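Table S5 (text form). Sequence records supplied for joint modeling of the two-component complex.
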Amino acid sequence: MLQALDATTGAAMPHSGAALWLGLRTVRNLRKGLTWAWLDTVCQYRRSKIGPLWETVNVLVMTLGIAVVSSAVIGGTMTDLIAYIGLGIIVWSAITAQIGEGTTAFVRNREYILSSNLSIDFYVARMSFRIAITFCHHLILYVLGVALGLISLHWITLLAVPGILLLFINGFWAITLLALVCARFRDVELIVRNLLQLAFFVTPIFWDYRRVLTGREYIVDYNVLFYFIEIVRGPLLGEVPPLRTYAVVLAVTVIGYVLAYLAYRRMRRNLAFFV
Amino acid sequence: MSHVRIEDVSVRIPVFEANALRLLRMPSFGRAKVGASNVSHAGALFVIHALSNIDLVLEEGDRVCIIGHNGAGKTTLLRLVAGIYPPSSGRVEVEGKIMALLGQNLAPNPDATGYENIKLIANLYDWPKERLPEYIRDIEEFTELGEYLSLPARIYSAGMHARLAFAVATIQVPDVLLIDESIGAGDAHFQEKARTRTEEFISRAKIMIMASHASDFARTMCNKALLLANGRRVFFGDIEEGLSRYAELR
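The corresponding structure-token record, covering 525 residues in total, follows.
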């Protein structure tokens, strides 16, 4: 195994077929990322009584609180709103974790990056899977909703599975891109966190996108995050998302991976200097 | 055949700090004893010339100790060989499997127990599954950590970390082993064990590069010395001569 580096080559990366090689390596490393994330979760349970379930409790409290306010201000019955809002918040929590925590993925692993020659996709996979495990905890609330009769099961429900997969497949490039950029430009992390807060209000989570005034639909149509919420929330509520939603998500997936790859090509080499 | 070949390599470390340039202009900076002469600025960026025009060729059987003052570039050179730092100019070529044991803490998850960390490392570094029980017994025996291996790694002392890290890094014979000063945290008894282990390891003809300030330890572990000063190669050759050159340098 020969590793050669000069002033032009990327860190342990071949010149030709780099994208394909990188993709294959990343996929091969996913299982190890899961093992690492699993251990992280086990340790979380060890140090607090219910571990990541605290985040699930948080989601539940948020859902109930917002449902009460929404039904009072916007109108509608609590029982109708609670499933819509709850599922929206569950998906949102995964999005916000991937974007918000993604900014710190490499900076947080500074010590390990500077002392080992592990490839950096481990750190991305570790974070991605940890968020996915927490997300699975939140699905308990969905099961609870079904048990209480707030949500009904359909065949359409199964369509949520590809939705969830797409959500995390996109999270992977988002974490890679943000972690690289934020390691170099520390301001970006704060900007991203601020924008995330705004995005919570702009994205239809606690309000119904179908009730937006005519002529103002653009606030939903141009919001990429809305489509990611819809591919999971829609099927779970028994609605098939329109084809356009999937088209947007797939386009974002392709663009996102191209951007993450370009950032990797440009910044991976110097990552140890950035962190 | 494993080898490490470094050809005319310089490493310049950029410092991304808004007021670094202002500090650079302060007269007191020029008087700093540690690495003052090797800084410059490129545009709006403060740059440390951590290594300048280094040439080095290592073949199998070479056990090199890097010596030099603080800030001489020892850790940078180790990171360069490990592929953590890229060369700013020149070329680095390493043939063989590298194991880098740098920094205080090799435990990937400080909240997990010693055993869990060992298993995680086994997973990350692709140790053969069927040999894992044997490896764990070996680590238990070598580190002598006993019940501490069942406790979270965050409570370990520096010496305990050094023991665990060295055991883990040498369990599978890598072609190129890189060790920095943190290994010195181990006590005399451990250093003796480490020496015995290194001998076995070297008998299988591989390369080791370590950084150390402890000359006795360096003497027993290595057969060659690389003396660095201000990021430049001052001497490379026999360990005894290297150590005496280093003593003169002080």
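Note: The interface with chain A takes residues 13-14, 16, 79, 82-98, 100-103, 105-106, 108-109, 111-112, 116, 120, 123-124 of chain B (CB under 8 Å).
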